[in-house]
Amino acid sequence: MQPEEYQQLVLHNSPRRPLVKNAIMAFLTGGLFCLLGQVFLDIATIIERTEMEAAAVTLAAMILVGTILTGLGVYDEIAEIGGAGAAVPITGFANTVTSAAMEFRREGFLTGMGSKIFIIAGPVIVYGILSGFIVALTKALLTGLL
Amino acid sequence: MQYLIAFVTGGLICALAQVILDTTNLKAAHILVALVCLGALLNGVGLYEPFQKFAGAGALVPVLGFGSSITKGMLAEAERLGWEGLFTGAFEITGLGLAASVVFSSLTALLRQPKK
């Protein structure tokens, strides 16, 4: 069998991914996380002095939620159902950090957990800072801030 | 009403990510990185602030909001400190969550074993 034929066969026989159902589940899951975030944001807006502090506290609270759900082993099940709806909210970021910490702890505290805690979340932090830096620098120069 | 808006906007962002995930060969990591960069960019051009005013946590909680928060922190700190702010500002808003995530994740790893 030629590779192309094999590709065709695989394509033909692999189960079709239920596009609409996945999207709806992602919508509901992601929406629920954002709804919870809105509860935290409302509370944080009352407690904190500035809008930025309220945002920081909300993000941290959602990260705590993601960490706890991961520790309880629930987040994997949510991700199974919700797909991107569990990955895109910041709770998914927390999930990758916590599951890496749990997973690599058995390789030791230094070379295991310490080195690999950001093994999945790392790119989001690195490219977030890089793109943020480029954007902020450009804007600061254009607006005469610097 | 704000709850409904947050639910719908946040949900739509996630549903869109899911559709991209299902229809292309991109991995989740690609999409998350793309979203964080997009958030940083949208904040820079001044579109994220009005969006977040409208959508609240629906704009803040998806990883887009993380990218936007990085740019926002850098610009706010640059205003306060000058060029140093472009660096220290990266963690102005996100630092609380990042440090919390290290602390609580480590604690969780001490207390719980991964299932399997």
Structural key phrases:
heterodimer; A: 146 residues; mainly alpha; 80% helix; extended; B: 116 residues; globular
What does this structure look like?
- The complex is a heterodimer of chains A (146) and B (116).
- Chain A has 146 residues and is mainly α.
- Chain A has one domain (3-120).
- Chain A is built from 8 helices and no strands.
- In chain A, helix 2 packs across helix 3 (51-71), helix 3 packs across helix 6 and helix 6 (90-104) runs antiparallel to helix 7 (109-116).
- Chain A is extended.
- The N and C termini of chain A lie far apart (64 Å).
- The mean pLDDT of chain A is 93.
- Chain B starts with a helix and ends in a 5-residue tail after the last helix.
- Chain B has one domain (2-111).
- In chain B, helix 2 packs parallel to helix 5.
- Chain B has 7 helices and no strands.
- Chain B is globular and about 50 Å long.
- Chain B has helices at residues 2-23, 28-44, 48-55, 57-60, 63-81, 85-88, 94-111.
- Helix content of chain B is 79%, strand content 0%.
- Chain B is mainly α and 116 residues long.
- The chains are: A mainly alpha (146), B mainly alpha (116).
- Chains A and B meet through helix 2, helix 3, helix 5, helix 6 and helix 8 of A and helix 1, helix 2, helix 4, helix 5 and helix 7 of B.
**Major beta sheet summary of chain A:** none
User: Rounded to an integer, what's the Rg of chain B over CA atoms?
Assistant: 16 Å
Beta-strand residue fraction of chain A: under 5%
Helix content of chain A: over 70%
Termini separation of chain A comes to 64 Å
**What's the gyration radius of chain A in Å?**
20 Å
Number of helices of chain B: 7
Q: What's the domain count of chain A?
A: 1
Q: What is the chain-wise order of helices and strands of chain A? A: HHHHHHHH
Q: Label the structural class of chain A.
A: mainly alpha
Strand residue percentage of chain B? under 5%
- The strand count of chain B comes to 0
How far the N terminus sits from the C terminus of chain B, by CA atoms, comes to 42 Å
Sheet having the most strands of chain B: none
Helix content of chain B: over 70%
Shape of chain B: globular
Mean pLDDT of chain B: 95
Q: Name the pair of protein chains with the most residues at their interface, and give those residue counts.
A: A-B, 81 and 78 residues
Shape verdict of chain A: extended
Catalogue the unreliable spans of chain B: none
Q: pLDDT average of chain A, as an integer?
A: 93
